[in-house]
Amino acid sequence: MESYLISGGRKLQGEVDVAGSKNTALALLSAVVLAEGTTTLHNVPDVSDTRTKAKILQSFGAKVTWNGNSVTFDCSNLVDGEAEEEMVRSIRTSFYLLGPLAARTGHVTLPAPGGCKIGARPVDFHMKGLAALGAEIDLSNGIYTIAAPNGLTGTTIYLDFPSAGATQHLMATATLAKGTTVIQNAAMEPEVQTLASFLNRMGAKIEGAGTSMVTIQGVESLKPCEFNVPSDRLQAGTYMLAAAITGGDVTVRQIMPEHQTAVVNKLREAGADVDEGPDWIRVSADNGLRGIRIKTMPYPGFPTDMQQPMSALLTLAEGMSVVEETIYESRIGHVQELNRMGANILQESRSSIINGVSKLRGTSVVASDLRAGAALVLAGLAAEGETIVRNIHFIDRGYEKLEQTLMGLGGQIVRQTQESRVQY
Ligand code: EPU
Predict the structure, then answer these.
(1) Is the CB of residue 126 below 6 angstroms from any atom belonging to ligand 1?
(2) Residue 75 is a catalytic residue
(3) 149 lines ligand 1 (CB under 6 A)
(4) Which of 226, 261, 278 is the last residue of a domain?
(5) What is the pLDDT of residues 158-190, one digit of tens each?
């Protein structure tokens, strides 16, 4: 197991070009199977989640070739294959292949999914939606079998919650259904809009993606295409927070500032200086920060994925902050570890009550999931002394070249293997 050794206390300064979006890439990797032929995606982040998803695609006959951040997917000859359970369980979006594969090949089996341990993460919206589209569903011994021998049929699907994954999964699946599908109470996340643009480029007829009602006119078939994955709004947000927590001055580039509204507004409310241009945001914070209230919401509200990193920042803000997590019931793995570093966080149900402290102290901490890991890295960058963050395979799921990027900004962070590790 690898870990990070961070020497804290340096103000991060400089510019960062943000890598491609993990969550967008994962959604596109489900959709590539809809078209016969070779699809090429550029700017795919080379992180363990995209690598795993690509391997799962290979189990179904896709030929995948990585060339840096450009990846080709030859889906000419798909098979009714079997994916390794361990691989499928390790990422949530393995599941979003069910509908597209069933729509394309008529039959698919897949073990039930996994993902970061941040709550129960049920899949009922996905299953109800697939059933409404006419899929025959069986779950036996933890294996889903989805059959659509006569194809799928368009219908109206109401989501009980605007789930990003269910919207993406059902939207992609419905592109090959006969007739019209309407998804009501759809998620409005940028990742949904990008997936719709990708599918439309393949010949799908989707309208309304990015609003709460998405309409999909089914087509006979889709054709392969080339597509560029946009930058990752969550990696960008993390670097913005890294600037603020270290009292530094960082510009994140090649991003869409309109996707950062919630984080930008909350940073300003906490007292950071934020400037924006057409494709960049500059964050600096040399006068200290003050406590604020945050409540996570579906997009365009404050993103749950930034909740843990933002909580790390608020441990050092003067006064009290309250951070309420409304999307996941247990996205709190960072709390205990930040407290070990000297933070003062009281967890009450889904709310973290954070009383700002004047400094954090480095120690050995353990990442419990991807964004908890990011939160601990931010805390380590700001802390006095050395911090060791263990279990960084969680961080490798979603941050491309994290340590190189932070070192480029003047941070001191080194990846350690088991052998090279400093003991505490
Ligand atoms: N939900 C259900 N039933 C379902 C589906 C979802 O009850 O069938 C619930 C979930 O349990 C959760 C809420 O709905 O309480 C929202 O879940 P959603 O489906 O929107 O999340 P997701 O698609 O599983 C994606 C991202 C997450 C991100 C969420 C919310 C990917 C691969 N994952 O997950 O990203 O937190 O949307 O924006 O796109 C991360 O990157 O760290 C991460 C966890």
Answers:
(1) yes
(2) no
(3) no
(4) 226
(5) 999 999 999 999 999 999 999 999 999 999 999
